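hiii, so i know i said id send this last week but things got crazy w the move. better late than never?? heres the sequnce for the chain we talked about at the cafe, plus the structure i predicted for it. fair warning i was half asleep when i ran it
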Amino acid sequence: MRLTFWRRLLAALFLLAAATPVQAQSFGFPWWRDPQFQKELSLTTEQSSRIDGIFQATMPTLRQKKEELDRQEAELSRLIAGNADELAVTHQVDKVEAIRSHLNKSRTLLLLHLRQVLTPDQRAKLNKLYEQRVADRAKKPGGDRDRKDRDRPNLR
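okay and structure toks below
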């Protein structure tokens, strides 16, 4: 019974990790480089370059933190599989969650910095493009309905 609980906890932790995207581009691709997005947003070359610079400067840190998160989650899994005492598991959970928190904070700040490059009108247009993309995905068989709010740009 106790082993089943730990297995379920471990599975839940892995699902949470998978639900935390490292991608900083809200659309899953560098939308600021896409000619259609550039046109629809009236994105200038300078804005596109600034956004790309922000993104490129941030990604190494996000990748490093994601790798660290993966390592610490593997250690947590090892502790759980080895029936470690509750104190050791709790300590490791704290480490995992602190790293996850830092990763989420960095991603949120990245989105804020991208938002600051756009005008209010461009942010509104980007949000509409995002909402349309979510609606289109939901219409597809086996679409991405469960992810619809996960990577929302929230650039209002």
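btw The first helix runs from residue 2 to 18. thought thatd interest u
miss u guys!!
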